[in-house]
Specification:
Layout lengths: L2 H11 L7 E2 L3 E2 L2 H11 L4 H4 L1 H4 L11 H6 L1 H4 L13 E14 L8 E14 L2 E12 L7 E11 L1
Antiparallel strand pairs: 1-4, 2-4, 3-6, 4-5, 5-6
Length: 157
Amino acid sequence: MSENAQAAYDAMQGLVGQDPVAGEWFEMTQERINDFADATLDHQFIHIDPEKAAQTPFGGTIAHGFLTLSMLVHLQTTIPSDLPSLDGVLMGVNYGMNKVRFVSPVPAGSRVRATAATVGVELKGNAVDQTRAMTIEIEGVEKPALVAEWIGRTVFA
């Protein structure tokens, strides 16, 4: 175990139990939804055909669930952090998800933001795994779009 990993672990432990912190709002545009459909070859009409989607209970096109999940990568970068600068970071990687639930559809043109709360930290040799409870909210909607437990691994020199 490196001293840098131990110091990071100690710092991250201080985040466990703190209230969730929200990031900035981000518009989920139809263009982004279309681009995701092209990238994943998921051209289901509820995502890309406004006329047909208007005839569904959604009332219009909605973002793919996996697009919403993928946006966590960007949305989490807008969440303020109390974590001090960490020394000796070699890289950060996605380690995985414990849970993911798609609670509410994200209509095209709506704004979303993420909130995060650290729920666990583990020291793994020269790495630290931080588990965060992530929620993606839709502006003006009571229920969230998504809830997930996301594990990020930071590897240290």
